[in-house]
Amino acid sequence: MPQPRRLVEGNEAVAEGAIAAGARFFAGYPITPSTEIAEVLSRRLPQVGGHFIQMEDEIASIGAVIGASLAGAKALTATSGPGFSLMQESIGYASMAQVPCVIVDVMRGGPSTGLPTLTAQQDMMQARWGSHGDYRIIALVPDSPQECFDLAVEAFNLSETYRVPVFIMTDETVGHMHEKVVIPPADQIQVVERNWHKGPKEEYRPYQFTGKDVAPMVKAGDGYRFHITGLTHDERGYPALTPEQGKKVVTHLIEKIDSNVDKISRVEEDGIDGADVVVISYGITSRIAIRAVQDARKAGLKVGVMRLITVWPFCEQKIRELAGKIKGFVVPEINYGQIVLEVERCSAGKCKVISVNSCGGAVHDPEEILTAIKEAAK
Amino acid sequence: MNDVVRTIDDATFRKQNPMAEFLRMERMPHIWCPGCGIGSVVTSFAEAVKESGLDMDKIAVVSGIGCTGRVAGYVKFDSLHTTHGRAIPVATGLKLANPELKVVVFSGDGDLTSIGGNHFIHAARRNMDLLVICVNNFTYGMTGGQMTPTTPTTANASTTPYGNYEYPFSLPFLADAAGASYVARWTSLNARNITDSIAEALTRKGFSFIEVITPCTTLYQRRNRLGDGLDAMQYYHDDADIEHGADTRNVGIDYQGKIKVGKFVDRQKPTYLEAVNTHYANVIGDDYELYGKTPPEKKAEEDAKKAGIDDLSEADSTTCDSEDDA
Prior knowledge:
- The complex is a heterodimer of chains A (378) and B (326).
- Chain A is of the alpha/beta class and 378 residues long.
- Helix content of chain A is 38%, strand content 21%.
- The radius of gyration of chain A is 21 Å and the shape is globular.
- In chain B, the strands form 2 sheets. In chain B, strands 2-1-3-4-8-7-10-9 form an 8-stranded mixed beta sheet, sandwiched between helices. In chain B, strands 5-6 form a two-stranded antiparallel ribbon.
- The longest helix of chain B is centred in the N-terminal third of the chain and has 15 residues, at 38-52.
- Chains A and B meet through helix 3, helix 4 and strand 10 of A and strand 2, helix 4, helix 6 and helix 11 of B.
- Strand 10 (227-229) of chain A pairs parallel with strand 2 (78-81) of chain B, so a sheet runs across the interface.
């Protein structure tokens, strides 16, 4: 059993966080650099009354996770870019059918097989747009093994609250980093249980399309005889193939997240007030950016920091407000420029937006970020 | 088009239909064509459930995409209409997270053995506790009659306009080779046999596979000028021969050739969950909590706890064969 405080690898911390959140089912397929999550859970789940299964591929893994969730289990899978791509169709299904589930993507360099053992943040847009159709998901990005643990708990809580797939977008560096992790006693970890239907059986409806709250759930086997489909459906879960119903369903899938952004979104800020330049980063890149910010501040520049713990839904309002007040944003990320597109969109030309991009494989040199900060401050 | 003339009003039809207990009558009429075999298989399934005496609340039906994929939408059980080819993985997760469920997969030949082929062989390999019913009509009906992995060589399909030149799968052979513990095949003419087979498989453990050869009148029959549903029944009547225990290597189907039907495989071996529990109990020992106890076993354990009995070995012994020797 884990000690309350010890050196833990990021991937192991995700696995322990999932168990702490009440996850008792994992289905997965080996892929570098996420495999340790499966390995840890294959050892740990049988010890805590849960079940681990290695499936034949990632498509089967997410399928089994969805099935397990509908039978009442808190369930997760873990993968990296190529496997994440294979899962996308069923991620759309989970979004449409509103099945709570957690998917960990330990990002590596792409495209294709790319740089399997090297770090990247290239799946940020895949997380947002990877499946077909319009829907919303939640994506959390940890920057340390401790946060891998904490956000794994958070991911399950959000998934259960909003009946939505939640992604933990970690990366090769954080996934394989060993750091001190404090695992609090179970009674000090806030765990959200699924909102089970409590009323009479005949009143049960698997869905409501209010745009705010989600309908309570039931378990397969509890006698509700519910029906779930990926087709556009009505409150009973029955296919309802009309443009009107399509609008109702899609609007709900989007609004249940968008109207709750304030409750979902977590952004860490430092020195924003009075700043000329704000560095926006997430995950491992934010730890590199700190060095650049410190150097810039030493040089007398007024630099603020925003670390996106929640990347999706995006903190649009904050960026819109800041854009009118500062000279520029600097957005370093280990991809060719993905989240910077969101920053550009939200700042709407009111200030400079400088992308410090990378093709993946290594974290930034703080000097590159510093140069961009100086450029933005001009 | 001929309108169906109903002699009873709609409400009475929905209420008094002998299938009302098993079907979501509010969803009728279904989408299947006249002469299609899927409805016959669903009827046999309902009869089999009745025969088996199983608790209907503990049966879940999972299907993928296509005409057969629509079965999940019509049956009054917990029912999941999943994505194309993925019924088996979802059913696997459902079964593992709630082992007291009897999980039944309804799938067409394309859904199950083309896009879902990998899941099919792996579930059979694991001897996962699932009953998989394949409605094999040799074609993709929902998309307009394309070739599937079971379309017999030389048959016409919309994507083989000059005739099919590929070799088809023989599904009982595939299931047998992959490790299924129960394999049967019938045609949709053999309604009683299908019912009996499903009833038998419902009470069995492990991976059970039942293939039902059915006509797709609108596409396969028409495109190959094979007549209507009745002509298909005549073909099954004349050319389907029962041969229980037939070697699955010899049950392939040629275009309009002989169809061997019957129960081909019935072997006992530990299911996936039995293997899990036996193995973990051996290697982890007393700390391992057997996975997937059924409610009566759980209840016995709780009652024992309440009564202050420490030794639970008796309550446990029913859950895992390996402990019988202990």
